């Protein structure tokens, strides 16, 4: 067995591999760029080697540096994870030539499946059904147009070396073909250095079905059943599940057998995935499921397969790479329950899913389900890499059970100030069509803005913000009588959003039993349904602890270091009245509404006690 393993990757997959290696008694070596010097995978490994600047092209994609790191630390093997160099045949060969064990597919298999046109030809020869289309050598625009016309529109143009949705265009009409071809080739050349394309018939009601396969050096190949990865955004998977809903046993047997034939056709070793496109317009049928491509590596979504089979695929990878046989025979593998995975990204759905980078001042992903992450509270989401925060995985006896558990996990996400797609994921999982398994790859696009969370906080969230602010100010109970004998006094908080301040009276029934969140001297943040709702607390930039009748109270014991108003002054909501210094921090107290200053009891330099009345703002008439 391997004694020391270098992981040529970062983030959650590096942490995932380290976890299994440690359980197997294998020492681990992490590699890191400048941006990842304090990353979780670096802190988790037994050793770590710096391999270059932050851009991946100067660090994680430089094979020579990674091999040198393995040599330097005495690592016997290299696990590439996924992405980066995981499907680079030249790197795999260089690893082997250096006398190291490559924990991945053989270079010959990577090459055989690396180009979509060659792979489709090979699959046809192996008796694997392929999508109707054209993958010939004649790449002239004239020939491609002729073939597209013959296939019939809509047609899909795909870069032969493509991936991740790049170099792909759907063409709905004959007149649009040539311009789409030119655009596709331009993108393919820039992304992959190869502008050759193939054509495929556009599938109606397409579902993305893939089969996990595993081979060893002794000629054995097994499958670990299928996954459904139909919920995608811009060809990127968002939610994956296993098994595929609506898959009957006969269809499962056919598609899984085809996947095993595909793997055997390239003498496959290690973990791989055969990806199929299904025409689900009449349900899942074997005669309407076609080979798309093979991923010659571990997949992002491998946890759902592990959850329903009870198998550790990384352990299998390490054992097979060391020369062992696959730990289980086909007849020993079976499906138990249902698993669903959601990819939690640092992105802002309300702003077109733009990546949201920066420090994770607050991060709590809960303790339910399976959480695969490469970050902890205090870490940072770097602009240099994929902005995935975590993979949230739920297992249940039934699909409905797994859905309910995963919705609870997304609802419970607490992250700030980085924005995430947690609420978006929860909304997608909660759609009736998802529950009814009415799925295809256009699901997210068709639902559109309906999946976006409402950014406006409701009354319960605003009340929770007021509660949190009061607790942070040291108020532990609600006073019912104030300094003015003719009026009852109740505490209230001025909360601001977008420059607008409103006064919130926490309801007595929910006071101090509110939603999770936190407050500091500038803001209150409330977490609800996967969203972080932020309210300002410091002058137009802040708020004040006040009584609903306008009494401004000291939030904690401290010293008055500035008084900005005098009795009789007119003030507006959010205007700073004075500044209190406490716990080595300055706290601005502001007007809860428009009005006039009366009963000014505070003076610069004066010491005050918690909840002392510092002044009163009489509300403006009208």
Helix residue percentage: 25-40%
Estimated structural class: alpha+beta
Q: Give the spatial strand order of the biggest sheet.
A: 14-13-10-11-12-15-22-20
CATH superfamily of the largest domain: ATP-grasp fold, B domain
Q: What is the overall number of helices?
A: 16
Radius of gyration: 30 Å
> What is the mean predicted local confidence, pLDDT?
90
How many DSSP-defined strands? 37
Under the CATH scheme, the architecture of the largest domain is 2-Layer Sandwich
Domain module tally: 4
**Biggest sheet, open or closed, and with what strands and sense?**
8 strands, antiparallel
CATH class of the largest domain, please? Answer: Alpha Beta
Q: Could you characterize what this model shows?
A:
The protein is an alpha+beta fold. It folds into 4 domains: 4-103, Rossmann fold, CATH 3.40.50.20; 132-201, ATP-grasp fold, A domain (Dna Ligase, domain 1, 2-Layer Sandwich); 206-451, D-amino Acid Aminotransferase, Chain A, domain 1, CATH 3.30.470.20; 459-619, OB fold (Dihydrolipoamide Acetyltransferase, E2P) (Beta Barrel). The protein contains 16 helices and 37 strands. Strands 14-13-10-11-12-15-22-20 form an 8-stranded antiparallel β-sheet. The longest helix is centred in the middle third of the chain and has 17 residues, at 249-265. It is elongated, with a radius of gyration of 30 Å. Mean pLDDT is 90; it is low at 479-489 and 538-544.
Topology:
Layout lengths: L3 E4 L3 H13 L3 E7 L6 H5 L2 E6 L10 H11 L3 E3 L9 H9 L3 E2 L4 H8 L1 H10 L7 E2 L6 H11 L3 E9 L2 E6 L5 H16 L4 E5 L4 E10 L5 E13 L2 E7 L6 H17 L4 E10 L9 E7 L6 H8 L3 H9 L16 E8 L1 E2 L5 E2 L2 E2 L2 E3 L5 E4 L6 E2 L6 E9 L2 H13 L2 E3 L5 H8 L2 H4 L7 H5 L11 H14 L18 E7 L2 E5 L12 E3 L3 E6 L2 E6 L8 E3 L3 E3 L4 E6 L6 E2 L4 E7 L2 E6 L4 E4 L8 E2 L4 E7 L3
Parallel strand pairs: 1-2, 1-4, 2-3, 4-5
Antiparallel strand pairs: 6-9, 7-8, 7-9, 10-11, 10-13, 11-12, 12-15, 13-14, 15-22, 16-17, 18-21, 19-23, 20-22, 24-25, 24-29, 26-27, 27-28, 30-37, 31-33, 31-36, 32-35, 33-34, 35-37
């Amino acid at each position: 067995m391997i004694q020391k393993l270098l992981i040529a990757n970062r983030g959650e997959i590096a942490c995932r591999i380290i976890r299994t290696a440690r359980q197997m008694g294998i020492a681990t070596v992490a590699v890191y760029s400048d941006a990842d010097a304090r990353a979780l995978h670096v802190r988790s490994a037994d050793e770590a080697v710096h391999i270059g600047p932050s851009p991946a092209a100067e660090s994680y994609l430089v094979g020579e540096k990674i091999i040198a790191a393995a040599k330097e630390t005495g690592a016997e093997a290299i696990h590439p994870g996924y992405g980066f160099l995981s499907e680079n045949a030249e790197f795999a060969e260089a690893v082997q030539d250096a006398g190291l064990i490559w924990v991945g597919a053989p270079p010959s298999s990577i090459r055989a499946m690396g180009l979509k046109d060659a792979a489709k030809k090979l699959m046809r020869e192996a008796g694997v059904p392929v999508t109707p289309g054209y993958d010939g050598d004649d790449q002239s625009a004239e020939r491609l147009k002729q073939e597209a016309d013959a296939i019939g529109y809509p047609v899909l143009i795909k870069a032969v070396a493509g991936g991740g949705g790049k170099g792909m265009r759907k063409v709905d009409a004959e007149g649009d073909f040539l311009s789409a071809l030119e655009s596709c080739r331009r993108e393919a050349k820039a992304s992959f250095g190869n502008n050759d394309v193939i054509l495929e018939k556009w599938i109606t009601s397409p579902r993305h079905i893939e089969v996990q396969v595993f081979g060893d050096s002794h000629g054995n190949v097994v499958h670990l059943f299928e996954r459904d990865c139909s919920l995608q955004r811009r060809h990127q998977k968002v939610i994956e599940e296993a098994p595929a809903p609506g898959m009957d046993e006969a269809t499962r047997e056919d598609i899984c057998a085809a996947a095993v034939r595909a793997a055997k056709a390239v003498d496959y070793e290690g973990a791989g995935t055969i990806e199929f496109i299904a025409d689900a317009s009449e349900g899942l049928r074997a005669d309407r499921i076609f080979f798309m491509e093979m991923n010659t590596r571990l997949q992002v979504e491998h946890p759902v397969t592990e959850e329903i089979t009870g198998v550790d695929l990384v352990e299998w990878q390490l054992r097979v790479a060391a020369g062992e046989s696959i730990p289980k025979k086909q007849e020993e593998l079976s499906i138990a329950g249902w698993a669903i995975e959601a990819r939690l990204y640092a992105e802002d759905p309300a702003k077109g899913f733009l990546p949201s980078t920066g420090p994770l001042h607050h991060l709590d992903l809960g303790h339910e389900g399976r959480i695969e992450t490469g970050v902890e509270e205090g870490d940072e989401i770097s602009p240099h890499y994929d902005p995935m925060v975590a993979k949230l995985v739920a297992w249940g006896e039934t699909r409905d059970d797994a859905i309910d558990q995963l919705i609870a996990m997304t609802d419970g996400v607490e992250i700030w100030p980085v924005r995430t797609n947690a609420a978006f994921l929860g909304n997608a999982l909660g759609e009736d069509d998802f529950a009814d398994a009415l799925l295809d790859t256009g699901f997210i696009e068709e639902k559109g803005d309906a999946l976006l969370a409402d950014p406006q906080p409701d009354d319960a969230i605003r009340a929770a913000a007021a509660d949190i602010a009061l607790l942070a100010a040291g108020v532990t109970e609600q006073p019912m009588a104030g300094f003015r004998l003719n009026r009852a006094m109740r505490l209230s908080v001025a909360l601001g959003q977008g420059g607008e301040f409103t006064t919130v009276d926490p309801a007595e029934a929910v006071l101090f039993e509110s939603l999770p969140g936190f407050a500091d001297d500038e803001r209150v943040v409330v977490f609800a349904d996967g969203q972080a709702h932020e309210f300002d607390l410091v002058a137009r930039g802040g708020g004040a602890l006040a009584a609903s009748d306008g009494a401004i109270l000291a939030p904690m014991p401290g010293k008055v270091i500035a008084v900005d108003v005098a009795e009789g002054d007119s003030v507006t909501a959010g205007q700073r009245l004075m500044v209190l210094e406490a716990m080595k921090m300055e706290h601005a107290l502001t007007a809860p509404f428009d009005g006039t200053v009366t009963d000014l009891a505070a003076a610069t330099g004066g010491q005050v006690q918690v909840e002392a009345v510092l002044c009163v703002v009489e509300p403006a008439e009208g």
